[in-house]
Amino acid sequence: MRYIHTRSMDSAIVLVRALDLVGTFVFAMSGAALGVRRGLDLFGVLVLGWVTATAGGILRDVSIGAIPPAALASWPPMVLALVAGLLAFRFDRVLERLRHPVQFFDAAGLGVFAVAGTQKALAFGLDWPMAIMLGMISGIGGGIVRDVLTAQVPTLLRSEIYAVAALAGGLVVVAGAKVELDSTIGGLAGIVVCTSLRMLAVYRGWKLPVATARETTGD
Fold first, then answer.
1. Position 42 in a domain
2. What is residue 175's predicted lDDT score, i.e. its pLDDT?
3. Rounded to the nearest 5°, which phi and psi values hold at 126?
4. What are phi and psi of 16, to 5 degrees?
5. Of 58-62, 79-83, 89-93, 211-215, minimum mean pLDDT range
């Protein structure tokens, strides 16, 4: 039983690392594509892509004490982010043919990082509610930094379904772990749920309720 548990943990660690790399690439595409649309030069596009790809993972790792963060501990994340940025810069017209290029890559990155963050938090022994929250933070961190750097109101603070999608993906991962579902299957299911929910919100215009502003009158 001890061997099985260790083998399962090793598989989960490998899966998290793989998801980190995939998430790094797609989130870098998201940031770089937005940089191209905003008219940034090549250096600006690459920086925006790298920051978007790594901010959420760095925040996650710092929060759970995984120092140095995975995004800074080795070269593959940076190389992937730079390659994604170069591809977005070179083939920007191809990306523009997609209906929502930035939203698509952002949704994919959101799903991957939300799942990877939740699984890594569980591997570090966090209780499931905090694991889901950390997964959400891991998923939305890069998007927040990207939006702030490009002078946009972060998607998180608007009425769009964004953080809720990340929470849904993390919840699927936790549910899969509770029923002892294979971590790969549970992770893929979480990514599909999160990404699909986010893209459906984009295409169908799903939004959360918005508070109605009240006018104040003086005495």
1. yes
2. 94
3. -75, 150
4. -60, -40
5. 211-215
Residue 18 domain-assigned (yes or no): yes
Alpha helices in 124-159 (DSSP H): 128-149
What's the CA gap between 74 and 71, in Å, rounded?
7
Radius of gyration of the CA atoms of the chain, in A: 18
In a domain, 218, yes or no: no
Instruction: Quickly state the pLDDT bin for 6 (edges 50, 70, 90).
Output: very low
| Beta bridge pairs of residue 109 | none
Residue 19 backbone dihedrals phi, psi, to 5 degrees: -65, -35
Q: Is residue 211 part of a domain?
A: no
Q: What does the pLDDT average to over 136-153?
A: 87
pLDDT score of 46 more than 90: yes
Closest Cα to residue 205, out of 159, 167, 156?
159
Q: How many domains does the chain have?
A: 1
